[in-house]
């Protein structure tokens, strides 16, 4: 098991809250991390995709009351939304008996459904922890390129070869399309949703154009929005909102859309190794999305992320409004000799960020004119992780 950065955070939340929800896409390592915790705490584990385990919860209050002294781990909890009301009663009963933390660990791979269900029933009783795919702070620095090409799902990253990694990712995509999504309720043909997902990969980091996507799929804009909401809810796609404020400029109002895992992008486009990725037009957008996912995974809680673009061409790839009112501007460049466009300088003149960075493919850190720091991805992630102590 690769040590995960969020382990200490998860343990701290379990020591503070009666219930903790560990959220992340399938195969990201939630169950592995939960099993590691179960080995260190008296626990009972239930997989809600397993019929025998589901049968145990026919009367959830009766069954779970028999394990009130243990940490109960409920995997794929969104499969049984009716549980949340029962959990509320059990948590309140435990509080009356003096147990204030560490009763339930809920694992879920469908964020909005789980948040809505638990938020209604467990308000004030639950904390949320997001587990993302592996990032640059969790792997050897020399493996950064492999992480980008294969993506951060552990089985893909750790595969014995690029071919084995590609096979795993294709199986992952097929399973989501043919089993997981239909099981969650939406009646969308698997081939249609794959085409949509692939179209998003082709346009990685582009502005959302629902009309264009709709024409390609022969559906209307509302249907495109429904497909996109589904992939966002499943933590497979990210909508990065545009910056909105009264800056006296005409601002772009459409969000940018990113397939969140770079390895999934490459598989959707049939790119099996580093050379294939570098030879494809998506390389720049794939790298940009990879950087954004890593930075947001390291950013402190409460950080607001957006991008800045005016109709006149001023642009910043990523704005991070950090806790305390600090704003960082981040430009992302694939290559070893990053050059800034004039639009970035104009955007910085508009917004006056506290710090400006260029994240590039190299390993050195140095300053450019205009008080701009050129930095590698791992270095900026480390600064975010140490914020506000980081200089």
Automatic annotation (TrEMBL):
Residues in DUF4143 domain copies: 178-334
UniProt superkingdom: Bacteria
InterPro entries: AAA_14, DUF4143, P-loop_NTPase
Domain AAA: 17-138
Protein name: AAA family ATPase
Organism: Roseospira navarrensis
Phylogenetic classification of the source organism: Bacteria, Pseudomonadati, Pseudomonadota, Alphaproteobacteria, Rhodospirillales
């Amino acid at each position: 098991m690769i040590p995960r950065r969020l382990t200490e955070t998860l343990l701290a939340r379990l020591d503070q809250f009666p219930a903790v929800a560990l959220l992340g896409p399938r195969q990201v390592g939630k169950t592995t991390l939960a099993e590691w915790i179960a080995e260190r705490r008296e626990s009972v584990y239930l997989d809600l995709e397993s019929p025998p385990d589901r049968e145990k919860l026919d009367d959830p209050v009766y069954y779970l009351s028999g394990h009130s002294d243990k940490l109960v781990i409920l995997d794929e909890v969104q499969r049984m939304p009716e549980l949340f009301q029962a959990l509320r009663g059990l948590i309140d009963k435990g509080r009356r008996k003096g147990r204030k933390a560490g009763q339930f660990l809920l694992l879920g791979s469908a964020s909005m459904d789980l948040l809505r269900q638990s938020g209604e029933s467990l308000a004030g009783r639950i904390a949320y922890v997001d587990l993302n795919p592996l990032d640059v702070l969790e792997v050897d620095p020399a493996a950064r390129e492999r992480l980008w090409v294969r993506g951060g799902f552990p089985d893909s990253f750790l595969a014995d070869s690029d071919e084995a990694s590609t096979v795993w990712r294709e199986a992952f995509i097929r399973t989501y399309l043919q089993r997981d999504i239909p099981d969650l309720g939406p009646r969308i043909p698997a081939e249609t949703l794959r085409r949509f997902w692939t179209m998003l990969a082709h346009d990685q980091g582009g502005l959302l154009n629902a009309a264009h996507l709709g024409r390609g799929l022969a559906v209307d804009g509302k249907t495109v929005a429904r497909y996109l909401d589904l992939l966002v809810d499943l933590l497979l796609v990210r909508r990065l909102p545009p910056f909105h404020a009264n800056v006296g400029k005409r601002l772009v109002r459409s969000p940018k859309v990113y397939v969140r895992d770079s390895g999934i992008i490459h598989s959707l486009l049939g790119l099996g190794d580093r050379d294939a990725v570098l030879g494809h037009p998506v390389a720049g957008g794939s790298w940009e999305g990879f950087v954004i996912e890593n930075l947001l995974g390291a950013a402190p809680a409460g950080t607001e992320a957006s991008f800045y673009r005016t109709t006149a061409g001023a642009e910043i790839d990523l704005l991070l409004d950090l806790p305390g009112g600090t704003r960082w501007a981040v430009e992302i460049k694939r290559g070893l000799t990053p050059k800034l466009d004039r639009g970035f300088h104009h955007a910085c003149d508009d917004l006056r960020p506290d710090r400006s960075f260029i994240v590039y493919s190299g390993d050195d850190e140095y300053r450019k004119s205009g008080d701009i720091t050129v930095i590698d991805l791992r270095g900026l992630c480390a600064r975010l992780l140490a914020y506000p102590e980081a200089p």
